[in-house]
Amino acid sequence: MTDLPDASTAYELLARMALIRRFEEEAGRQYQRAKAGGFLHLAIGEEATIVGTTSVMRDEDYLIGTYRTHGHAIARGTDPKRVMAELFGRVDGTSGGRGGSMHIFDAERRFMGGYGIVGGNLPIAAGLALSSDFKGEDAVTVCMFGDGASNAGNFGETMNLAALWSLPILFLVENNLYGMGTSVERHSAQTDLSKKAEGYGIPGRRIDGMDVMAVRESVAEGVRLAREERRPTLIEAFTYRYRGHSAADPEVYRERDEVEEWRQKDPIESFARRCIEAGVLGERELQEVRDKAEAAVLGAVEFAEASEEPPLDTLYENLYVLDSDAWYAVDERSPEPHRGENESEMPDAARELAEAGAAYAAQDDGPRPNPATHGDAQEGVEPEVAGEVEETAD
Ligand SMILES: Cc1ncc(C[n+]2csc(CCOP(=O)(O)OP(=O)(O)O)c2C)c(N)n1
Ligand SMILES: [Mg+2]
């Protein structure tokens, strides 16, 4: 059994976990009300892994995650108001309402996303760590990803470079036992994920991701090794998401008993109970933590609702457009651009579409689809009965 921290640390850890839990419950509710659009991946149940990790990071360290990262941003100190506004697609969101749930981003707090591509954050993490090294900075990069992502090709590529270049990086697999509806046993030849980087010289260890203190202890050591000795490590934290993969998941791949079993190990309840039993925290503090979380989350919804949608004429802002000549000139067949690859040669239909889009964006007042009525959320479908919703590709 891990040791408990002092009272103020215990309070802070509990407060962060409770805030994230309450935020995500509310995000799920707002999604059902179609206030939040796009996809929504909740990490309810995984709070100890998230908060244990961020609690031992310095402000200058980088954190990068996946599409299940509302909690990661909040744990890093991003205002829940701005995270909720992002889910609502509003201008005050962390990405100006352009990214939504999967693309929470806060460069100021060095939370570098938020990625929809499974494993896509791994090479970017190596790049962040390389940049710290290059600039002679002390920062460590913590890269969090799922068990499923450990099968992506760039997992090996990233581990190779991290070890080869002695990057100041820590990898943390949030092993919640499933990649969408596929269990670890069915998706990974090596089920001890902590061993998956050994061949590259990156040692690993397995920890209880439901115990915030166990996570803190291991991550603190991993971060120290990265910062002081430039030695990357891989931590496999066992955790569990109580909700489906995304808001639309019939959950046919697991038994309710299994979910219930993990709920018994709830990271927030178990930590609170331990703190009370040991006299580190009292009932009064517990209630205070709950009340503060409630107030912060209701305030976040109010803020998000009051925030504007991005104006349509900003549709083309922040987009990268590659010059077609430059892009296709590296074509291996021959150096010059090929037929249809020049914008000037685009088929009439494509040109008409592009021009119509530009004209639409440029008009002062046009019909604008309301995300609240055109989102893909299912009104009235509570997560418990989400089985009625068809599984989607994401
Ligand atoms: C490259 C790529 N392939 C497939 C998908 C579709 N997809 C989205 S989430 C997911 C499962 C990933 O599972 P895991 O890495 O364990 O993370 P978890 O969702 O459990 O947090 C898949 C296959 C994707 N987004 N990107
Ligand atoms: Mg998983």
Q: How many strand elements?
A: 7
Distance between the termini: 38 Å
Strand content: 5-15%
Q: Estimate the mean pLDDT confidence.
A: 89
Q: What gross morphology would you assign? A: globular
- Report the helical percentage: 40-55%
Structural class: alpha/beta
pLDDT below 50 for ≥5 consecutive residues: which ranges? 326-332, 375-393
- Using only C-alpha atoms, the radius of gyration works out to 22 Å
> Which compounds are bound in this model?
thiamine diphosphate, magnesium ion
What is the string of SSEs from the N terminus onward? HHEHHHEHEEEHEHEHHHHHH
Question: What order do the strands of the largest sheet run in, or round the barrel if closed?
Answer: 1-2-3-7-6
Please tally the helical runs, counting DSSP H or I stretches of 4 or more residues. 14
Q: Major sheet: size, sense and barrel closure? A: 5 strands, parallel
What is this structure's SSE topology?
Elements: H1 7-32, H2 47-54, E1 62-64, H3 70-76, H4 80-87, H5 121-134, E2 141-146, H6 153-164, E3 169-175, E4 178-179, E5 182-183, H7 184-187, E6 204-208, H8 212-229, E7 233-238, H9 256-263, H10 267-277, H11 283-306, H12 324-328, H13 348-362, H14 371-374
Parallel strand pairs: 1-2, 2-3, 3-7, 6-7
Antiparallel strand pairs: 4-5
Helix pairs in contact: 1-2, 1-3, 1-10, 1-11, 2-3, 2-8, 4-11, 5-6
Thiamine diphosphate is lined by residues 66, 68, 116-118, 146-149, 174, 176, 178-180, 245, 394.
